[in-house]
Amino acid sequence: MGFFERNRSSLAEKGIDPARLPPGQYFTDRFPVLHVGDVPTYAPDFSDWSLTIGGLVGAPRSFSWDELGALPTVDIVTDIHCVTKWSKFDTRWHGVRFRDVLDACGGAITGATHILETAEHGYTTNLPLADVLGNDALVAFEFDGLPIEPAHGGPVRLVVPHLYFWKSAKWLRSIDLGDHDQPGFWERNGYHAYGDPFREQRYG
Ligand SMILES: Nc1nc2c(c(=O)[nH]1)N[C@H]1C(S)=C(S)[C@@H](COP(=O)(O)O)O[C@H]1N2
Ligand SMILES: [Mo]
Fold first, then answer.
1. Cα separation, 78 vs 70, whole angstroms
2. CA distance between the termini of the chain
3. Is there a contact between 130 and 185 (Cβ–Cβ < 8 Å)?
4. Which residues have their alpha-adjacent CB atom under 5 A from ion ligand 2?
5. Any idea which fold 3-199 has?
6. Per the confidence metrics, is the pTM higher than 0.90?
7. Residue 42, CA atoms < 13 Å, CB-side half-sphere
8. Which pLDDT tens digit goes with each residue over 71-121?
């Protein structure tokens, strides 16, 4: 039995349903750090940080750190899946649902079908709008009860757990709603436009 088979069969012993592990993935309790470029630094009060929501929304605007924190928050516990084949179960995130951020911008305008996330240093990734309107699509600022560490995307990252984790931009700075799909950083470099781990949509 190879590594992947052993890893998968050890899940049942831990009381975890093996069906939660997508094909071709192995689970780990570690939390690997994966990104291109340097980890950005901010002022201690994040006064040099903002989140801008633009494009096809009723009232495009930016949120300061305090304005984002004033929106209703939720906790989610969810599995995450990286295209480099690690999965991590039951990760706990705290933040504002993207749909509540959107509501605070007057909602999506008719014709909006996709979003493009932009992070510090120009990292981008694209998604259908419908994929970030659910309960688990979070503009997150805490992981496991603590502020998200800079290496994991703090102060603010998107978390879209049902897609490969490259869709969850660390150091999120803006989200634009548009009327068509446009490939982001990894999507232009060979990754799948959508990236469903359970359908193993790794490459485009
Ligand atoms: N800004 C930014 N966000 C990013 C990336 C990146 O390179 N830059 N990498 C993505 C990839 S490929 C993965 S797997 C996850 C990794 O998140 P982690 O380092 O917290 O595990 O972040 C995603 N978000
Ligand atoms: Mo990744």
1. 24
2. 30
3. no
4. 34, 82-83, 166
5. Sulfite Oxidase; Chain A, domain 2 (3.90.420)
6. yes
7. 20
8. 999 999 999 999 999 999 999 999 999 999 999 999 999 999 999 999 999
Ranges of H-type helices in the chain: 3-13, 65-69, 98-103, 185-188
Nearest 10 degrees: CA dihedral of 196, 143, 139, 68? 180
Residues with CB under 6 A from ligand 1: 31-36, 82, 119, 123, 152-153, 165-166, 168-171
Query: What are 145's two structure tokens?
Result: 């009860």
Asked whether the predicted pLDDT for residue 1 surpasses 90, the reply is no
Percent of the chain with pLDDT over 90: 99
pLDDT tens-digit series, residues 141-190: 999 999 999 999 999 999 999 999 999 999 999 999 999 999 999 999 99
pLDDT in tens, 74-88: 999 999 999 999 999
Nearest CA to ligand 1 atom 19: 33
Q: How far is the CA of 123 from the centre of ligand 1 (A)?
A: 9
In a mutational test of the pocket of ligand 1, which residue from 51, 120, 166, 172 has the highest number of ligand atoms less than 8 Å from its CB?
A: 166
